[in-house]
Amino acid sequence: MMERFAGRVAIRIGDVIAPLPVPAPIQNEVDAMWRAVFGRLDLPALRDQFFADGEFLMLDRLVPAALVERALAEIDDARPTRSKVPFVRAARHVGWRTLQRIAPISTALYKSSVFIDWMTELVGQPMQLKHPSDDHACATYEYERAGDHMRFHYDTCGCDDGASYSQLLSLHDRSTQRLVVDLHTTDGKPIERRTLQTLPGTLTLFCGSKVWHAVSPLGRHERRVILSMSYATDPSMTPWRWLYENVKDALLYFGPLSLIKGDR
């Protein structure tokens, strides 16, 4: 009975205001872009590298600059929510329910069947989209004030260990801020730390519960914008877990109003 109640509340607070469909020309353009850039890559070699590095891979400046700039322009027109948890993280965000209505290029990047199929081949498990009311499914992280950062953490996104995969697409980076990753924290191999610059167009892919990662503090008069896309081998959650994730995301990322409506 209580589980049914939690499910009803989770659905209610995560309710989706029907998004506009992605215009077919934009989705076709994005699919063609993914098909072209992936066609130039050696997938078997990248798969070996991905698993050798503990399910982590960075593809430098993969997405063409012109498309990145258009995606960034969509985000610049949005109304992000700024959130700060002292000693934990500070940034501005736009959640998935909002992106679906105002950012067709970002939406097309995330929902592209070409991208999902390629990820499935890389990982060796079927990748699935997160629920359309999950604001963390595809969201922006905009670091624009001195000191903005994120401490070390794993990404589980409400999923079981090993089921959630994160893809970070850099849209803007004029900063000294760096993505810092510790590889092999869960597989018994010697831990390897990497400090990485994410130039615009760079795509970083990893298993969220296997790569310990952080973002270093932003310097003065700097800016860095990331489109974070999350997929799962099994995106289902129990009602209580779904309720917990909705409340947590509202409090830590997207603001209390996201609990009662999908737009701000």
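^ that was protein a. below is b, sequence first then the tokens
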Amino acid sequence: MIKVFHIAVREFLATVLTKGFLFGILFPPILIAIMSILMPLLMNKAAPKVKGHVAIIDATGEVAPRLERAFTEDAIRQRRDKRQGAMLDEAGVPKPVQQAAKSGQGEPAPSLTLKVLPIGTDVEVAKAAIRQDAAAGASGGKEADEVSDPRLALLVIPLDAVAPQEGKRYAGFDMFVAPKLDIEVRGDVEAQVREAIVDARITAANMNVESVRAITSRPEASTKAITSTGEKKGSEIAQLLIPGAFMLLLWISVFTCGQYLLSSTIEEKSNRVMEVLLSAVSPIQLMAGKILGQMCVGIVMLTLYGSAGIFGLVAAAMLDFVDLSNLAYLAIYFVIAFSLIACLMAAVGSAVNDIREAQSLLGPIMIVLIIPMMLWMPILRNPNSTFAQVASFVPPISPFVMVLRVAGSEKIPTWQIPASIVVGFISVGVFLWAAAKVFRIGVLMYGKPPNIATLIRWVRMA
């Protein structure tokens, strides 16, 4: 046991003390923290100035007057501030950034005017102005300077959009835009046209616009979760993403350290270091020590990333979305998942001579292991489905499926948690037994790499 411990310490230190590991484990959380700070700030930086006019051919005569009020400088700025404030609140941006945006230091409001064209105007001629102004702006130089008020969009409102013929439905409208018109400006113009057409329809039906708008406005729900510390604002997105984050955390820690185990085993075998180690310890002790050492590396990664996630939830006042018992289950399922994957990696690493040969053996295994990643949303939305319950007892994917199920919002049968843990540890024993037999033979064999059928034969004969 002491020899196994010494090998584990050697494997642990050989991994965690490398510059590549320190950079790889520290860089992602630092990058996420930096991006979470920079993204709101960058979103509020000044965008390219949008200046020009929107032309309209209004056959109804009712839509254009309403749009003229919608495209005044004050109306555009109010919509910009309202949209920007809503985005900031929803994203949870710090108050100083919100105040900067509201004080006009954020994105400038577009400078748009509405030009009403005669009803008989040729649509093709009106569209040609968009092409000409866009081409002049793209060429730059003197031609771009001459276009002081470029045409950015053309709206064509048919008569049926407000007053349809008897027995027919309301018609839509046509909107032609410059090829590089800002997407937010395009969306704002489209939204204002829709609102103006609806208002014209309401007026044409001899109804009060304000009253109808008030009646048909969609009521907003204030959803709050009842917790042990009081009422908290609910978040459906958090309830979906937190279980996925649990599984992703388990996946990253398990497969990162599993890859370290695979590469170190192949490297020691190809460099003949393995033969020196086997002169002092048995193959089983060597394999056990390497698995134990890499498991400690995985625990370090799990603890670091998990602590960063918990800190983020505390900062966002969302810790109530995580049941602390799920952290204990995460640790247990990590031991099971890593042991299963490490056995596969150690067996494959001992049987091949380079990483390319290992990829051909790991291909079928990875196809199976990627199932929880591909189907995590169906499993999370229906954790008590037949597939989810069966997959909870099928190694080596069972730990990943169970992490999703126990972290989800729907309660699963209580007996399945201890049952899956017992089945998991039994599977670990079986995998260790099979991996030890492959490791004992493959670690000293060189030449042509074995296939999966050969590995199975080694397990049966060793």
